[in-house]
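QA checklist item 7 of 12: single-chain prediction sanity check.
[x] sequence parsed
[x] length recorded as 107
[x] structure emitted
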Amino acid sequence: MPRVRRGRIVEDRIARRYKKAGFIVERRKITAAGEIDILAKRNKKRYAIEVKHSNKGRIITSSEVRKLHKKARSVRANPVLILSGNAKLSKIGKKEANKTGTRVRIC
């Protein structure tokens, strides 16, 4: 299955979970800072969700965490990074996530 298609399937699954939990979900939201995979809103909470999927053990770097934080700030949302498959967060990426308040979830 093509890489882009597999990533979209995972994004669809995550978006459905948020909808089921009562969130209003926007997909592939374009901002001045770049595209957000999922923007989830409920009450006064807003989450900018980036989904990273890899079958080959891709390492997510601190610069990708910073980009997500910048995108989330542009829409006044809390950043959430969801790792799927064998995607991993580097040690420096973990530090950056802690520093920026980015939530990291593994599914």
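[x] summary fact logged: Strands lie at 24-31, 34-42, 45-54, 59-60, 78-85, 88-89, 103-106.
[ ] second reviewer sign-off
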